[in-house]
Amino acid sequence: MVASIKTHRDEVGLTDGELLIGGSWGPGSAERTWTHSHPATGEDVASFPVASPADVDRAVRAARTAFDEGPWPRSRATEKIRILRRVADLVRASGDELLALQALDNSVPLSFGGVYGMSAAFVADVFDHHAGWVDKLAGETLPPYQGGDHLVMTLREPAGVVAAIVPWNAPLLLTAQKLAPALAAGCTVVLKPSEYATFAVLRLARLIEEAGLPAGVLNVVTGPGDPTGDALINHPMIDKISFTGSRAVGRKIIEASAGTFKRVSLELGGKSPALVFADGDAGTAAALTMGTVTLGLSGQVCLAQTRALVHQDKVDEFNGMAEMIAGMVSYGNPFDPAVTSAPLINSRQLDRVLTLIDAGRSEGARLVCGGTRGDGELAAGNFVAPTLFTDVRNDMTIAREEIFGPVLSVIPFTDEDEAIKIANTTEYGLAATVWTADIKRALRMTRALRAGTVGINGYGLEPHAAFGGYQQSGIGREGGRTAIEAYTELKTVLIPTTDEMM
Ligand code: NAD
Q1: Among 102, 243, 249, which is best to mutate for testing ligand 1, by the most ligand atoms less than 8 A from CB?
Q2: pLDDT at 502
Q3: How far, in Å, is the centroid of ligand 1 from the Cα of 442?
Q4: The dihedral of CA 246, 248, 249, 250: what is its sign?
Q5: Which protein residue has the closest C-alpha to ligand 1 atom 40?
Q6: What is the pLDDT of residues 38-75, one digit of tens each?
Q7: Phi, psi (5° rounding) for residue 237?
Q8: How far is the CA of 226 from the centre of ligand 1 (A)?
Q9: Which residues are catalytic?
Q10: How far away, in angstroms, is 178 Cα from ligand 1 center?
Q11: Can you tell me which atom of ligand 1 is nearest the CA of 245?
Q12: Which residue, of 135, 173, 317, 369, is most buried by count of CB atoms within 10 Å of its CB?
């Protein structure tokens, strides 16, 4: 049995969650609650209200009033910058607590918090970065087309009331990537965390309040898609939906947006390739690729490189190192510093991953290691052994479907053209990595790959760089200018300066 997480819950002082509506925390209509069960042990962690459609309506109306009448959209740049920077400082100061709450949510091990992309420092940097945008969201002055000296200019204005919906795998980071640009642009927000990772996000919301955000600017409704998410995305007073999650829910959001033509940003899944050429460092490539699929979140990462396209001469070297990384994975209580990797988030996801592994076997892929559910002391959690398949073809189910678990598929290739064809034969397009010693090849591949992010001999995540996907990996980008501009509307202003121009 994995050691109980209850002592950690008590240490961090976690209590049942509440809704934040119009500046007040409370249980909402209290019709239903959701009890979160810990993915590593099956223990009940704590409960939170399932916001009803009436609760969601109150939250949206509070955000609407705060947008239409409140101070935030009209506040001076200095005020917005001060508050967003204060959020960053509070997040840094509360880093250990936030990561502990995240471990109680989704069991991501504390040992993984040192990885920049999963750290509290990254979350704080996202707020700092966007604070820097507040006084730079400028329009333009254009030369007049009709002659004369009349003014033609554009203004950037906040998009309005934003529904921000986030998944469970990296709740703090993904929440920050929505809230920071939305608030910096002057929008007001109704945030819905995942029902599988609510508590760290609720704490982040309290820190944002503590930083001095006016009441009603940030509202939080907790609960699952049905009824909470559904009520939020269909609410006519929402101007923009910013969503990170699955394609299935992404489609519902597109449909829900049609009624009132809501603006939509979608960050969806991936089936990202790592291309390892004969002149590439296959050992490092295997360590990083297998690492993204097994360490930390155990492959429950949108940009995990789950298809390793390996030159046929390098397959043995690659597989040897990948198997070694699999052997380093240690499962258990996320607060144990020796634990490297998380369980799957819930039993539904556990069944799905095991079913996909069975499909890999039955469609003829060769299982090198893993493929089984954790037993013995891991039996109460949703653990799956780190799994490596080789001799995979790109048309097999395990090479096409986003598995969201610790499963890597190795697909051999013989030349560059074949590699690029395999890499781009996917419904997704979130990320890719190229491993080669030849800079010209690296740049050729970078151009040819249809993916939102390309790493050359490595990769990472940066708070100020655009992140998002081609094809069915999403619509829009998070991070940087493109992301914050997606929380604005552009208004053209025409000012004739002589009577002739009227
Ligand atoms: P999910 O789509 O099941 O849930 C995401 C969020 O949507 C949750 O808050 C959920 O409660 C909510 N939701 C569910 N049904 C809804 C509905 N009908 N209306 C409104 N909201 C609803 O996804 P998940 O399982 O939580 O997360 C895993 C997925 O997220 C994977 O596909 C992964 O690739 C993707 N993801 C993408 C990125 C990225 O940046 N591209 C980052 C992380 C995760």
Answers
A1: 249
A2: 53
A3: 33
A4: positive
A5: 267
A6: 999 999 999 999 999 999 999 999 999 999 999 999 99
A7: -85, 0
A8: 13
A9: 267, 302
A10: 14
A11: 30
A12: 173
SS (H, E, C) 278-330: CCCCHHHHHHHHHHHHHCECCCCCCCCCCEEEEEHHHHHHHHHHHHHHHHHCC
State whether the beta carbon of 476 lies less than 6 angstroms from ligand 1.
no
Task: Identify the CA nearest to 130 among candidates 194, 178, 168.
Answer: 178
Q: What is the CA radius of gyration of the chain?
A: 24
Q: Identify the structural domains of the chain with CATH numbers, from first to last.
A: 5-269+474-489 (3.40.605.10), 273-450 (3.40.309.10)
Nearest CA to ligand 1 atom 43: 302
Question: What pairing do the DSSP bridges indicate for beta strands 151-158 and 141-142?
Answer: antiparallel
CB 269 less than 6 A from any atom of ligand 1: yes
- pLDDT score for 331: 97
* Residue ranges of the chain whose pLDDT lies below 50: none
Inter-residue contact 400 to 271 (CB < 8 Å): yes
117 lines ligand 1 (CB under 6 A): no
Give the integer Cα–Cα distance in Å for 297 and 405.
8
Nearest CA to ligand 1 atom 21: 229
> Among candidates 385, 42, 19, which has minimal Cα distance to 220?
19
Say what the pLDDT of residue 115 is: 87
pLDDT of residue 150: 86
Report the separation in Å between the CA atom of 234 and the middle of ligand 1, taken as the mean of its atom positions. Answer: 17
- Which residue's entry shows tokens 């001060």? 82
Burial class (CB in 10 A: 0-12, 13-18, 19+), 74: exposed
pTM over 0.85: yes
Angstrom distance (rounded) from CA 60 to CA 63: 5
**Measured on CA atoms in the order 69, 151, 181, 252, is the torsion positive or negative?**
positive
- At residue 501, the pLDDT reads 57
| Ligand 1 contacts CB of residue 257 (under 6 A) | no
Number of H helices, E strands in the chain: 16, 20
In this structure, how many other beta carbons lie within 10 angstroms of the beta carbon of residue 239? 21
The CA distance from 495 to 482, in Å, is 28
Pairing of strands 33-37, 44-49: antiparallel
Report DSSP state, residue 501. G
- Whether the CB of 496 sits within 6 Å of ligand 1: no
Per residue, the 3-state secondary structure of 74-103, as one string, reads HCCHHHHHHHHHHHHHHHHHCHHHHHHHHH
CA–centroid distance, residue 169 to ligand 1 (Å) = 9
pLDDT single digits (tens) 273-284: 999 999 999 999
- 183 closest CA partner among 141, 151, 211: 211
191 lines ligand 1 (CB under 6 A): no
